[in-house]
Specification:
The protein is about 0% helix and about 40% strand. With about 170 residues, the protein is mainly beta.
Amino acid sequence: PFRVDRLEWVVRDERVLAERPVLAQWKIAEFDVQQDERAKTSRIEFTTRRQPLVALWLFPEDRNFSRRVTVSATDEAGTNASWLGLAQASLTRIEAAPGHEPQLKLDLGGPRRFLRYRITISNHDNPPLSMASIQAEAETWEALFFPPSGPVSLYYGGSFATVPQYDIGAV
């Protein structure tokens, strides 16, 4: 005999409310600045937790400057890490020229998830810039869930994922 003890309905519903990610900025708490007098460059390095960075904002204390800047990144530790070039830009603030907009943002060309970042500033014959702070701009994603009344289950994973087998069932 065929018998049904209970029925459960699974409703899968997904609604995308924003076509673009929300961007958030936060201050890089610790960064290391090293001067290479021979190459006439300043090198700034910092680590992240692999957030999806889309841009970096540099805030030097100096007032009038225009410098070429490159951004590189790596997931490797140590001094022999291989660095991948991400972006090049001009870092500019000229307060002596009225109406000149400062260019302090370094666009990374999309979300980048690396552990370590390196910013190299070409000083040429100028004194090095004194960096007051650095801010990172990253994509923030969140899932909002408004549960209906009653029991709710959440399923997360890929369509080809297999069911895990743990020994907790025997315990």
